[in-house]
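Work Package 4 report. The design task specified in the project plan requires that, given a folded chain encoded as structure tokens, an amino acid be chosen for each position. We show below one input record used in the internal validation round.
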């Protein structure tokens, strides 16, 4: 079970900042084929 202390810890703030940096560095996925399972 998650507590308020866990959700507001300093480590979570650092993790969020790092994840934003990684997401900015990643290139978006290009659609190059049709998926027959999605209609």
């Amino acid at each position: 079970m998650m507590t308020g202390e866990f959700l507001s810890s300093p480590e979570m703030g650092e993790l969020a900042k790092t994840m934003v940096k990684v997401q900015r560095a990643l290139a978006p996925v290009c659609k190059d084929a049709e998926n027959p399972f999605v209609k």
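The chain has two helices and no strands. Validation will be extended to a larger panel in the next phase.
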